Amino acid sequence: MGQAEREALGMAGLPLVVIPHPMDRLSKDEVRGVAEKAFPEIIYILTQPATKVAAEYKGKYRAEVSIFKRKGVFAQETEEASGSLGAANRLFYERGWTDGLPIIPPTEKEISRMLRYTDRDPEEVIAVLLPRRGKATVKKIAVNAAMAGCLPEYFPVVLTAVQAMSRPQFNLPGIIATTNPVTPLVIVNGPVIEELDFNCGWGVFGCGWRANATVGRAVRLVVNNIAGGIPGVYDRATFGQPGKYSFCIAENERLNPWEPLHVERGFPRETSTVTLFGGAGPHNIADITSTTAIGILCTIAGGMSALGSNNITLGGEPLLVLGPEFAQKISAEGFSKKDVKRFLFENARAPLTCMEGLQRYNARRRSLRDEIRDVLSPFTIASKPEDIIVMVAGGSGPHAQYVGSFFNHTRSVTLPIATKDGSPVRSLKDFLRVR
Question: In 10 A of CB 17, how many CB atoms?
Fold first, then answer.
């Protein structure tokens, strides 16, 4: 990561001082010891002649394996045997521009079709995406959307998603560079769901819908190609997860007994929005025995507070996606969405005695320590009930999905699909009228 960072800064020869990983299990005194051990080398680099240091550190830290060196059958494949489409895919794959799946070559014609659905200049920089510091221009985003197989009408959703994930509170560089398997999850709300045929029902986290698949993939390609989220370079996820190919769902507003996510966050129901959530892979929670809302919620609370899960470890902003069957049963017994959040905050907990070591490095829990008198007192999955996100999606069945956030290091962002001046669009055809 140090190598990638110095190259992104335009200082490929910058010497690196390396400290051991991980640091989060160390006490303050242990961290101080690591710092004191590294400090003399830092002083040496800063105070010796630059030519001397450059010579001593030249080639000292080099990647063992390059992500761009492909092996196996692919290495013997010839462009002549592939044809033009195969040749384009070979080129993009060799240069690390794909997610490993075949792409649609981003021809000028395809890019021009995308750009019809925005009133922004193609060279406008929507965001500078960390950690690579890549400039996400409108045209570069369109290139990735075309590669992902997006229809031109999907482009405003992708553009809005990129704007959302560039917000500081989302913490894109942290989501990319962590060993945790988190990645941006795109959540779509409003009339655009029906207009573009996003899946919000059966198999909402699965395959089968072009809008979900290609929008999620386009966002991930932007992360890879512009922000630098290439596995082994900036992306340091120990395992990764399938959502790093594509991670996009829509809320089932028709079967939601409460207000949908975007309305809860202050937008009119008729406004289409995109929410970016930094999450791990979804964890299924099934309950085929409970007959009451309390029973269902107790099962969900247990599933969300499993030891080792992201939010019981470090709190944050957990996402609960209720199936319509559960949501309607819970609502019918008088629970509001606010009540559900309060219940989970109070009951999705794990005892201190089950989490050896947390007291040493978890600042959130250290701040609570003065209030804890009993070692069996439990910790909860969030700092306050309002931090828990509850939405409804999927088809029938006694299931819910828990998506753990990137601990307490990220906050979701919701933005309207809008024109350049910030006016929300009622239909994506509005972009064709403003050009």
Answer: 14
Supply the pLDDT for residue 126: 97
Domain that holds residue 366: 282-405
Could you tell me where the beta strands, DSSP code E, fall in 229-269?
A: 248-250
SS (H, E, C) 74-93: HHHCCHHHHHHHHHHHHHHH
Q: Which residues pair with 184 in a beta bridge?
A: 278
Tell me the pLDDT tens digit for each residue of 368-413: 444 444 444 567 899 999 999 999 999 999 999 999 999 999 999 9
Is the previous residue joined to 122 through a cis bond, with omega within 30 degrees of 0?
Answer: no
Q: Which of 209, 229, 271 lies closest to 99 in space, CA to CA?
A: 229
Backbone angles phi, psi at 426, to 5 degrees: -85, -30
Asked if 269 and 136 sit in the same domain, the reply is yes
In a domain, 126, yes or no: yes
CB-count burial class (<10 Å; 0-12, 13-18, 19+) for 235:
buried
Q: How many Å apart are CA 120 and CA 89, to the nearest integer?
A: 29
Q: How far apart are CA 86 and CA 106, in angstroms?
A: 14
Confidence of residue 75 (pLDDT cuts 50, 70, 90): low
Please give the pLDDT value at position 71. 61
The mean predicted confidence, pLDDT, of the chain is: 89
368 falls within a domain: yes
- In angstroms, the first-to-last Cα distance of the chain is 42
Residues 6+ apart with CB under 8 A from 219: 158, 161, 162, 165, 184, 186, 247, 248
Give the pLDDT confidence of 36-52 residue by residue, as tens digits.
999 999 999 999 998 99
- The verdict on 209 and 127 lying in the same domain is yes
109 alpha-carbon distance from chain centroid: 30
Coil/strand/helix, residue 316:
coil
170 and 236 together in one domain:
yes
The mean pLDDT value for 150-158 works out to 98
Please tell me the predicted confidence (pLDDT) of residue 72. 62
Q: Are residue 210 and residue 320 in the same domain, yes or no?
A: no
CA nearest neighbour of 251 among 137, 370, 131, 401:
401
- Is there a single domain that holds both residue 207 and residue 183? yes
Residue 144 buriedness (CB in 10 A; 0-12 / 13-18 / 19+) = buried
- CA dihedral 228→229→233→238, nearest 10 degrees, is 170
According to DSSP, residue 358 is labeled H
Band of the pLDDT at 57, cuts 50, 70, 90?
A: confident
